[in-house]
Amino acid sequence: MARSFASLHKSPPAGKSPTAIVMMNMGGPATVPETEEFLKNLFSDRDLIPIPFQRFLAPILARRRTPQIEKQYTDIGGGSPILRYTKIQGEGMAKLLDELHPETAPHKAYVAFRYVRPLTEETARQMKADGVKRAIAFTQYPQYSCSTTGSSLNELFRRGSAGDVGQNVEWSVIDRWGTHPGFIEAVSQNIEAALSKFSASDRKDVVLLFSAHSLPMSVVNRGDPYILEVSASVSAVMDRLGHSNPYRLVWQSQVGPSAWMGMQTGEALKGLARLGNKKVVLVPIAFTSDHIETLYELDLEYAEEARHLGIEVHRAASLNESPVFIRALADITAQHLRDYSAGSGPVSTQFGLRCPGCTNITCGQQKTWFARGGR
Ligand SMILES: C=CC1=C(C)c2cc3[nH]c(cc4nc(cc5[nH]c(cc1n2)c(C)c5CCC(=O)O)C(CCC(=O)O)=C4C)c(C)c3C=C
Ligand code: FES
Ligand SMILES: [Fe+2]
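Above: inputs. Below: predicted complex with L6N33NVT.
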């Protein structure tokens, strides 16, 4: 497997194995022809979408959806930029960590995607080849959902417990960081930049419309923490902005016929126009790099529609290469390493609690395994 694909940072000096920071995310097709494989892997994920006869139905559902999603990736420039941004973020973070926490240097960032290369299995092989003995599973979703971070951890648990990463690797987990001051600062700065596009006299009336990927109500109703955690991020951003503007949190990207968390972003824009709120900043809050939901759904669909409704709308940029954000990633990890060496244990207190409605036995096994440091 291509060595440079999963690993991001320079090779460690001979004899010293790196502290691995595993950046977990879903990934996206880097090129348009990879869309069908991405969707097939996504529809095959029981932790995300449990469907009957999954093995049989997943490829059929993926094939049916491919033309529509291929068109969206074509329209945003021919693929998802998530791997490129994750590499930039990971390299920047690892470099800063060598300074912030030299005791555990060298640090090396690895990408583990759930639905496209580098998949977790490929990253595991690379870590084994590098002789990794200490690893941090670092979710790149700021807010925890069992459908996103939970799915990535379940996959890492399957690979890790099978010995694919190597023997006696010491694991710990960064499972959520949606209210970390560095993350909140980076988002807030991007909102301020978007607000500055409005005339000074209009600025205070602009509605901040925070938009996050929705969740099926079946997931919300089993006690998934994501809705609460996204709300906490919004609240922290508004505190940082000194409540300078009115705001709402709305939900986007519902798929299929089942009930999803609302209000839908598109409907909210129509409602605001109807009520005479004609100045809006759209704020992506639950994903750290651009993807079809920002570049297609927000920029091409909703913002266009809003302009037809007479709304002046600007989108806050995604975090992408933001140095404030990269510094936040390094700070989060450095604090985790400090807490760990002070005896805090491999997982957070909140990590251990399963959703009250959870019936997925892998969740329980995974949490026990990580709480024992991957043993
Ligand atoms: C925090 C972010 C996300 C949550 C929570 C989430 C939950 C979730 N998603 C689906 C179904 C689909 N999601 C799809 C694409 C997709 N999802 C996210 C993020 C979250 N999903 C992103 C960033 C993307 C797009 C990747 C990109 O490059 O833009 C898709 C495929 C696209 C499509 O067919 O529309 C599906 C399907 C479920 C069922 C779910 C919660 C259970
Ligand atoms: S679904 Fe949340 S812990 Fe299993
Ligand atoms: Fe999704």
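Residues 213 surround fe (ii) ion (ligand 3) (CB under 6 Å).
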